[in-house]
Design a protein that fits this description.
Elements: H1 3-19, H2 22-42, E1 49-50, E2 59-60, H3 62-71, E3 74-86, E4 91-102, E5 107-117, H4 121-124, E6 125-127, E7 140-142, E8 149-151, E9 161-162, H5 167-174, E10 178-180, H6 188-208, H7 218-229, H8 235-255, H9 258-272, H10 276-291, H11 297-317
Antiparallel strand pairs: 1-2, 3-4, 4-5, 6-10, 7-8, 8-9
Helix pairs in contact: 1-10, 3-6, 9-10, 9-11, 10-11
Bound molecules: zinc ion.
Length: 321
């Protein structure tokens, strides 16, 4: 190792130590306070974020993510990093990366990832329409002009008409059930947009470092709550959905590069660190990895952000002496 390299590492080490001071903790806390004030004064519940009963964190929605991105004077740049369009298997999956590019600094300040796929409950299933008691097709409609029902030929039905009090028709309406959506291809664009939206929300949370204020899963939670109150939703189906979610998570992991996995692992260790000394050692470790180009500048910045948060957490747990 050359003298110059040693010097740089030494500087990084000093910086790592210098970072953990009361002043830094206070500055970070002050910045978080300002951001929390902005959130409370400028962001609208129901539009920018949602609150789901039974969860402790509000969920950041797309308009809120856009506001935060604007607040930091960033422009989102999206890239489709993974795409599956399998018409035979009715499988559509997209993963976006968003980079939040700061216009004044000319640098990427944060990154986010978002995936969506057609095996998610909301895309995979649909409610069946009532079936005609005569032909069994899902083409039974309420008549507009007179009380009663008809089986619409235009929708592939037999044209039969039924009285308003027809017991078989009533049973057909009661029997609507969750069925596999055999036409998810028409949802491909919706799924793609969802992946993009999730990436932006993920990126905005990373950018503003507000993951302790917001979570990102409003729709998923709503989905879960609907499931909980739905009689049709059997345990077996829930298990299948969970399996799908696990597979999707696995696919997301496969998409991660070695350096992303490394960062995730370092972030995990930071979250478990018990004192400032342990954090300092971790920071020294990743500063070296950055120096050796095992992780890039954006990733280092991301880790610095987590470091700030962990320092703040320790600051709350054990007040500086
Ligand atoms: Zn019919």
């Amino acid at each position: 190792m050359s003298e110059g390299q040693e010097l740089v590492i030494q500087r990084e080490e000093n910086r790592a130590r210098a970072l953990i001071t009361k002043e830094v903790l206070a500055a970070a806390a002050q910045q978080r306070k300002l951001l929390a004030e902005y959130v409370h004064s400028q962001m609208v519940k129901g539009t920018d974020y949602g609150e789901i009963p039974g969860t402790n964190k509000p969920t950041l929605l797309k308009p809120g993510a856009e506001k935060l991105t604007d607040l930091f004077r960033c422009t989102p740049k999206f890239k489709l990093v993974k795409e599956v369009e399998d018409y035979d298997r009715n499988l559509f999956a997209y993963t976006f990366r968003v980079q939040l590019y700061q216009r004044d600094a000319g640098a990427v300040l944060a990154e986010g990832y978002g995936s969506a796929n057609s095996r998610e409950g909301r895309y995979r299933w649909r409610n069946s329409n009532p079936k005609c008691p005569k032909c069994g097709k899902e083409s039974l409609f309420r008549s507009k002009n007179e009380p009663g029902f008809y089986c619409w030929a235009k929708k592939g039905g037999c044209g039969a008409k039924f009285k308003a009090d027809d017991a078989a028709v009533k049973a057909a309406f009661d029997g609507a059930e969750r069925v596999e959506n055999d036409d998810v291809a028409t949802l491909a664009n919706t799924i793609l947009k969802m992946a993009k939206k999730r990436a932006l929300v993920d990126g905005a949370i990373a950018l503003a470092r507000v993951s302790d204020l917001f979570t990102q899963d409003v729709e998923d939670l709503q989905e879960g709550q609907r499931a909980a109150v739905s009689d049709e939703h059997t345990r077996a189906e829930e298990a299948a959905e969970e399996e799908d979610a696990k597979k999707a998570a696995g696919a997301a992991l496969d998409n991660m590069t070695a350096s992303q996995k490394l960062c995730a692992e370092i972030a995990g260790r930071m979250a478990k660190a018990k004192d400032a000394g342990e954090l300092a050692a971790i920071q020294k470790g990743y500063a070296e990895k950055h120096f050796l180009r095992e992780i890039d500048g954006v990733q280092k910045k991301w880790l610095d952000g987590i470091m700030d948060k962990q320092l703040e957490r320790l600051g709350k747990e054990e007040p500086a002496k």
